[in-house]
Write a structure and sequence with these properties.
Length: 178
């Protein structure tokens, strides 16, 4: 499968709080010997922090549900990215992947043999594709993150013969068969 060229980088904030390893390193307590502690202690900021984490996770789940509903034959992953971006921003949040490092989009879409953190592009999805959609939002100081693997097209799980297998309107690509 040939990677399609990515569309231009989406505009976003460059001054958002650090996330990932940078944020985690700030939340680790110092070890008694002066170095970094070996275990991380979650810093929840109390009851309000937990409520905010729950809200960001719920928003991420709703956005993911919407994004997965769009994964149909003929739809491009860039169209899914635009819909994700619009829904996140409409909910007063920020799409965490956008401009993280050099990532140019608001969602990660990994199609077929792309293992993770695929960049949305103009390639239309086809029946038989598998796509992982990874949504992360930053809402009220907290990240919500979730992903789901989606099969494009109709399928059914058949039991018999050599064991359970998937069959569908279009056969799975050879690279996706177990």
């Amino acid at each position: 499968m040939e990677q399609q060229p990515a569309n231009p980088r989406r505009a976003g904030q460059d001054d958002r709080p650090a996330c990932g390893a940078a944020a985690a390193s700030r939340s680790r307590p110092a070890a008694p010997h002066g170095g970094r502690a070996q275990t991380r202690v979650p810093h929840t900021r109390g009851v309000q922090g937990i409520k905010k984490m729950r809200a960001s996770g719920n928003l991420a789940a709703r956005v993911l549900e919407h994004a997965c509903s769009l994964a149909k034959a003929g739809v491009t992953t860039d169209e899914i990215d635009r819909a994700v971006h619009a829904m996140v921003v409409a909910n007063n949040a920020y799409p965490s992947p956008l401009n993280y490092g050099r990532f140019p989009k608001s969602v990660c879409t990994s199609v077929n043999e792309v293992v993770c953190h695929g960049i949305p592009d103009d390639r239309p999805l086809q029946n038989g594709d598998i796509v992982n959609i990874d949504v992360t939002v930053f809402l009220d100081g907290h990240h919500g993150d979730c992903s789901r693997m989606v099969y494009v097209g109709e399928f059914a799980v058949v039991v018999g013969g050599k064991g359970p297998h998937v069959t569908g309107a279009a056969p799975l690509p050879a690279r996706a068969r177990a």
